[in-house]
Amino acid sequence: MSDKATLTYNNQSIDLPVITGTENESAIDIAALRSAANLVTIDPGYKNTGSCKSAITFLDGDLGILRYRGYAIEELAEKASFLEVAYLLIFGELPTADQLMKFEMDIKANSVVDEDVKKIIDAFPKAAHPMGVLASLTSALTAFNPSSVNVDSEEDMYKAIVKIMGKFPVLVAWTMRKSQGLPIDYGSKYLDYVENIIKMMFSHPNETFVVNKSVKSALNKLLILHADHEQNCSTSTVRIVGSSHAGLFASLSAGISALWGPLHGGANQAVLEMLEAIREDGGDTAKFMLKAKDKNDPFRLMGFGHRVYKNFDPRARIIKKAADEVLEELGVDDPVLDIAKSLEKEALSDAYFVDRKLYPNVDFYSGIIYRSLGIPVQMFTVMFALGRLPGWIAQWREMRQGKEPIGRPRQIYTGATIRSYVDISKR
Length: 427
Ligand code: ACO
Fold this sequence. Notes:
Elements: E1 4-9, E2 12-20, E3 26-28, H1 33-37, E4 57-60, E5 65-68, E6 71-72, H2 73-79, H3 82-91, H4 97-109, H5 116-123, H6 130-144, H7 154-180, H8 193-202, H9 213-225, H10 233-242, H11 248-260, H12 267-280, H13 285-293, H14 314-329, H15 335-348, H16 351-355, H17 362-372, H18 380-401
Antiparallel strand pairs: 1-2, 2-3, 4-5, 5-6
Helix pairs in contact: 2-9, 3-18, 4-7, 6-7, 6-11, 7-8, 7-18, 9-14, 9-17, 9-18, 10-11, 10-18, 11-18, 12-15, 12-17, 14-17
The protein binds acetyl coenzyme *A.
């Protein structure tokens, strides 16, 4: 394979280096193109643009492969704990038992949130969208933990990481309890990371809390499946905000905002709302299939299609199985699930969806599990953010320690050419 590509433009030949990754993906390095030929490249939505080199996550959208640091997602979802996966993503290797114990202890030691943060929560109306609340609270943490991270110090970096890993689930749980009018639960240091999340979210003030094993297993899987997905919209946002040397918490807050949209993390909420709407409309899935295919109708089948997976989403396979298991174990008989199954069946054999390679994505099933666990629909994307936290941290750390330059894309200007100011009385 050649290590250079030659571009011919205006009778000039320009050699551009080709770089190849460890999984043999190749890219033309166009950094010198502007100085050599006064050209930039244009690629709206970055559909074919690599923004960085990264050693964290590998995915192959055609083959349906997803690996964290070389480990297959199927194996991690089956065997690992979420905290082990978080450690793997952030620090590059699976932890030893001692490393994992220390990581867990340090996170627990940092899981107290300043009481003044509650005043901020109280200031939000109860009906505020939890993603807006979570983004604000994550940003607010900067005020309570003002020291900026010295990215050249592993110790400083580690301290910032355990701080946010400890406090973030508390913010998530408080956000949900606020929307439900429930008092805050401070968790327990005797529970592990996932158990503690469950307690902080679901405990009732007048009941002894016992963690349900099926709930724990399903949540552990969901968090692992969402933990990283290379350079998607929210992760790229975290990296680009961090590239200006904005702090970790500020960069994460921006990532949360990016995740909120219905074309990204907000799709899990949109899926459930769509399934509910179909049920309320009488359950005629064929009617909604027609709407999704009608180019004059803005309706899209939420939970179908993916920017990079054009064959199948490997996370969707794992999560579909987990959804079946958890619904059976919890004894949930959900009519919305029947609608989901019909839609899936119809779409998988419909030429429109097959030709465009539109398959169910991870969000098609995750909402069904969250619903069976009793998590309110508006909280679904917050749960996604909880899982994605270690991925965002890992990507931020890689970007800062790799001394990447500030993110600053180019454009092709298409507006008016120079013209003279016209006085307001003459317009
Ligand atoms: N329903 C109906 N038609 C669709 C859908 C859908 N869900 N998704 C794509 N299409 C059609 C488009 O209209 C387009 O048709 P055309 O070629 O006739 O114009 C074609 O398929 C390609 O669509 P694009 O939008 O160009 O695909 P892209 O890769 O840019 O977008 C996206 C991917 C945003 C995920 C899209 O499939 C979508 O909107 N899906 C629904 C939202 C969703 O589930 N998002 C979650 C993504 S997963 C995640 O973030 C974890």
